[in-house]
Design brief:
Family: Belongs to the PIGL family.
Number of helices: 7
Shape: globular
InterPro entries: GlcNAc_PI_deacetylase-related, LmbE-like_dom_sf
Organism: Umbelopsis vinacea
Distance between the termini: 28 Å
Structural class: alpha+beta
GO cellular component, one term: membrane
Mean pLDDT: 89
Order of helices and strands: HEHHEHHEHHE
Oligomer: single chain
Protein name: N-acetylglucosaminylphosphatidylinositol deacetylase
């Protein structure tokens, strides 16, 4: 977490995947990285650089916005605020802001996926899995270039 990833290198790796798999949409973190994680921030900067410099205009970039610590850990209690904030995003097209709500079954699938990373499941990550709104509520905002 203490190593800064090179933005140009991240961008070139993204370019390889976009070209190889004919990708049209990239979804990444926002500039704060949701949790302040430097790798998450580097993923955003690399994706942004790629989309800005690719020049082809065929790849759209969406970001997962960071929310305050209180909102991050109130789980479904954040739903009214998420709905309100997604409607307040200044957009010219309905496809510029998307709101996703996981069903109970989908939540259990993500919970199972998190358990596959047993080395990562220290006590505070269990709190994240139980209380984080990101386990059930996710917004995506289209990045305007």
């Amino acid at each position: 977490m203490k190593t800064e990833w090179n933005t140009s290198l991240v961008s070139s790796i993204i370019q390889e995947y976009v070209t190889k798999h004919n990708i049209q949409i990239i979804i990444t973190f926002d500039k704060y990285g949701v949790s302040g994680h430097t790798n998450h921030q580097a993923a955003y900067r690399g994706a942004l650089q790629y989309v800005k410099t690719s020049g082809n205009g065929t790849v759209s970039l969406y970001k997962l916005p960071s929310v305050s610590l209180v909102r991050k850990y109130i789980g479904l209690g954040d739903l009214p605020l998420a709905i309100l904030s997604s409607r307040m995003v200044k957009t010219s097209s309905p496809k510029n802001s998307l709101l996703f709500l996981s069903s109970p079954g989908q939540y259990l699938i993500t919970h199972k996926a998190m358990r596959q990373h047993s080395s990562q499941l220290v006590w505070f990550r269990w709190l994240y899995v139980i209380f984080s709104r990101y386990m059930v509520i996710n917004e995506l905002e289209k990045v305007s270039l």
